[in-house]
Design brief:
Layout (H helix, E strand, L loop, with lengths): L13 E2 L9 H16 L5 H14 L5 H12 L2 E5 L5 H9 L2 E5 L1 E2 L13 H14 L1 H16 L3 H16 L1 E5 L2 E4 L2 H4 L4 H4 L6 E4 L18 E5 L16
Parallel strand pairs: 2-3, 5-8, 7-8
Antiparallel strand pairs: 1-4, 5-6
The protein binds fe (ii) ion.
Fe (ii) ion binds next to helix 5.
Length: 245
């Protein structure tokens, strides 16, 4: 979850155009893109695979956020909101609830493609934008849960919703033709996590069978317990009122 304070070493993150690595930002992006696309088949949900194919010309190279935002708006009514640092949680959800998706203007170091201490542009764009472009179910769920989180006054209910956001949008799997497939952005944008999420090392629990509010999330470690939904479109059927007790 985004936070206004950072206790992690973010010195490896670089502002676009200021890379001191042996690789340019463009080279870093292309390496990330090419290797991640090779990981999608048989792991990512069909909605995401189709979406990446559809918007490939827009994200194949390091994108210009202004142009990408215009294209996203014409497709979906959403815009990109560039952020050059951490966004306080309330601001983060307020932006999303008003159809502005925050995207970092910094990117991980070209020396370490597998790690970013914070969500960087690669994560934000590759992990979220394809489904934002291509799925009205995803867009509506994202907007609705963000509004609900922003407006929630009861701390327990707010935490439950934030957990739900994390264990769906950021780290979620769904059933697809009897198999598990990834739709969470953390896994979709990570070379290692997309395989790990589907490995026997991870406990997968049906989302509808748990009280999601009781879990404590550490976004800086891989998730050893994740939650599955019966199908991708189930996102559109989640009733927040049932979580408010
Ligand atoms: Fe994310």
């Amino acid at each position: 979850m985004n936070s206004s304070t950072c206790m992690y070493d973010c010195s490896s993150l670089v502002r676009l155009g200021s890379s001191s690595s042996s690789r340019s930002d463009q080279e870093t992006w292309r390496l990330l893109y090419d290797r991640q696309c090779q990981m999608l088949e048989g792991r990512a949900c069909q909605e995401f695979v189709e979406a990446v194919q559809k918007i490939q010309p827009l994200i194949y190279n390091l994108p210009n956020l202004e142009l990408l935002s215009e294209q996203l708006y014409s497709y979906s009514g959403w815009r990109i909101f560039p952020v050059d640092g951490l966004v306080p949680s309330d601001d983060f959800f307020n932006l999303i609830g008003n159809r502005y998706f925050p995207v970092a203007t910094f990117i991980r170091s070209g020396e370490d493609l597998d790690y970013s201490p914070l969500p960087d542009m690669w994560h934000d764009i590759f992990g979220h934008l394809p489904l934002l472009f291509n799925s009205s179910v995803y867009r509506e769920f994202l907007e609705n849960i963000a509004r609900e989180i922003y407006q929630a006054s009861d701390p327990d209910y707010k935490k439950t919703l934030e957990n739900l956001f994390w264990y769906t949008i950021e780290s979620g799997v769904c059933q697809e033709n009897g198999e598990l497939r990834v739709y969470g952005s953390s896994q979709l944008s990570s070379f290692n996590e997309i395989s790990y999420a589907l490995s026997e090392q991870v406990t997968v629990v049906p989302l509808e069978e748990v009280d999601i509010g009781i879990f404590s999330i550490n976004i800086h470690t891989v998730q050893t317990t994740i939650f599955k939904i019966p199908c991708f479109d189930y996102l559109g059927q989640i009733d927040f009122k049932l979580l408010s007790k």
